[in-house]
Structures are given as C-alpha cells and as structure tokens.
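step: validate -> pass
step: tokenize input -> pass
step: predict -> running
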Amino acid sequence: MTNMDHLKHVDAHMDDLISDLQMLIRQPSVSAKNEGIEECARLVQKLLKDSGINSEILRLKKGVAPIVYGEIMSKQNPSKTLMFYNHYDVQPAEPFDLWDDPPFSGTRKGNKIFGRGATDDKGELITRIKAVEACMKTTGDVPCNIKFVIEGEEETGSAHIEEYLKKYKKKFSCDGVIWEFGYVDAKNRPIIGLGMKGLLFVEMSVSESIMDAHSSLAVLIKNPAWKLIEAVKTLRDADGKVLIEDWYKEVVPFSKNDLEIIRKEPFDESIFKKEFGIKSFVGDKKGMDAKKALVGGATCNIAGFVSGYVGDGAKTVLPGDALVKIDFRLIPKMIPSRQVSRLKNHLKSKGFADIKIKVFHGEAAARTDSSDPFVSQVKSAADEAFGKSILNISNAGTGPMHPFAGILNAPCISIGSTYMFSRIHSPNEFARIDLLKKATKCMCLIMDNFGNS
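step: predict -> pass
step: emit ->
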C-alpha cells in the first residue's frame, strides 16, 4: 500500500471521524470542576481500542486525573517511535447563555462542529487517532512505533504531567513528539510551532482594614485597591516591557536563522485587528516587531482585578482588601521559580513588602531547534496535506512542552487543525471539518516521513 491509500481512507471515513468527535464533545470533561474526567478517560481509551490501538489508563495517585496511554509497535520499523501528546479535558463552558447551542451538544452546522473541546483538544485528538487507524486499515501496520499520551489536566496547568513523565519515562520513550494542537491561519495555512512560551501565574493581595467601610472614611483609611494599582504599575511600562530587575537576564537573543524564519512568516495585522476589534497593538508595534513579540516576547498581563463593590449601580464603599491575578508569559531561559524570587524582591524594593503573593502555576518555555530533521519531515507533510505551511519559532501560548523535551529528550512540534479564530476557551467554540480532514491526512504523512527517514 502507498501513502495515497491512507489518504483515500481518510476521505472515505470522514463521517466516522465526525461522529466520534461529536461523541467526545457530548461527554463533558471539565478539569477545573472535576466534571466527567473519569468518564471521558474511559471513553478515550475505548476510542483507541476501537481504532486498533492498544490502550490503558495510567494513574499517579488519588485525586489526580488519569492519563490514557496508547501504543502500537511497528513491524517494519520498530527502531523509531513517534508520540502524539494530547489532552481530553476542556475549559469550563460558562457563560452558558452566550452559546447558540448547548456547549456539550456537538452540533454540526455546515462545515463546522460546535461545542466545548471541538477544537481544544478533542478535535485534534481525533485527527491523530483516525490517522493511525487509516494506516492500520490500509497496511496492517504503522510506519514507526506510535505512542499516545493523553492527559486530563492540561486546562488546569498540567500540574502532574512532569511526575507522570518521570514515573513512566521508559514507557513514554520516543524520538519525536507531535504536540496537542497547531494553529491554522486566516488563509488556511498550518502554522508549525517549534516551541511554546512558559507561564507564571500569580495572585497578589493586600488588606488594609478588617472590614469594608463607608467611603467617606477614605481620608483616614488607606484603600488597598490603590496600593495594588500602584504596585502593579511598577511591573511593566506602557510598551509592555517588564521592569522587574534582571527579568530578562538569562534570555538568549534570536539566532540569524530564527530571525529569517520570523521574517518569512506572514502575519496579517489588519485581519488580526479586525477579528479582535482593536485599533493598535501594545507599544504601537508593527511589522517585524509585532511578529517577534508574538513568538518571543515576555508579557505581564492583568488577568483579573477584584476589590470593593462591582455590582450594578452605586455603592459608596471603601474596600478592606484587594486582589489582582497576573500571568507572565515566559521565554526560554526564564525559570519560573527564579522569576518569582525576582518579583518578590522587586515589590519589596518598591515599598510593597506587605503585598502577599500566591503562586498558582509555573511552566518553563521550550523550543525545538529549527535545524532538527524532524522539522523538515513535519513541514513536508504539512505542505502536501494543506498546500502550504508556515514555520513558527514559538507559539504565543503555553503548554507543558518543557518537561517533554527535557525528560524524554525528544523534539516537540505543534501541528494541527485549530483555526486561529475558532473561539477556543470562549462560547461557540468550533472545529472546521475541512481542516480536520487535512490535519488527519497530515498526520498520516508525518508518520510516513518520520518512519522512512
């Protein structure tokens, strides 16, 4: 059998792919609320088995979401192993009233399938499973060993993935990892991501009094919201640069090869601005500066600020406490624990030593060298399946790529079917069926290229 047989099988069985994706969407699996996690893990295990993939559920300890593990050993090429990393958990669906259809309905409308997880990440997972199934159905074998690691905590920060990787290091050993998703741009070109930014999520809080008070007392009682505002203002400048001392100390500049890849990457600023309804970028960035920021810029973002009365109408209240949630996107060489120490030292030096800091999540950045042979194998497959693809030095988002690359010592690459405006993490999330088909074919071709290299 040839590559064409795999691809024809995908064309002929798209109805199965769609129905399986709808079935997955209809099983809620919200990790933030521990809703449906066990049920979804068992469903994913069944989907793997039904597709001819040996599967089992792996556990770490009580209270930790299980990993669904799948494996097929290649008869023709047992010396090379490709891993698909995905996740079966999804973001909460709220606010429910902003959905046109129930969020776990898996409703199909024309070329789109709607529902929480339709793209992130159940749609992506289905493309991988169906690609392996296509190889098995047409040849009775796979071009290389295939492994699936499908976790249930990605949407809450993959808190235990590093422990899983260490515990099952031998079982998970591989030569390359296809990451859990990949964006497709406005012109239907897949963006091949060679890395992901890191993340540091913290909560800063301060109390000034033991109770809320009448706002007339603001002449005597300090307002904690003002203190937080003043503290947060010291963290970055108007152009987005983080002002914390030594924040960028270990960062290595882009290489010439990196800059050339960034320069070639198309980025339609007008389409991006129109989609989000904005007029300009932070620091009025344009052209190359905007591209460099997306793939290699660190951020300091206020994710939420709570203090006092935020209901309808007026309430003249002086709050007793205030709280702000901040996420920092990190770039390679920024170690989360070290950055936390720098944040604490910064606040202390600015006179805000009484502000409490709670760390929720820390994840280091990772990046695969653009000269790695795995990159050209993936790009060749993507060019064939989609018509044209784009190399991207690093995704602007975050995932646990760092422990995969470090513990398994394997290059990681993002490639998939996620249309960049598919409303992931928002109401009316959808997957495009045409992109699901192309991504499935792409996975078939990646397996061939990887196995035959």
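step: describe -> The chain is about 35% helix and 20% strand.
step: cleanup -> pass
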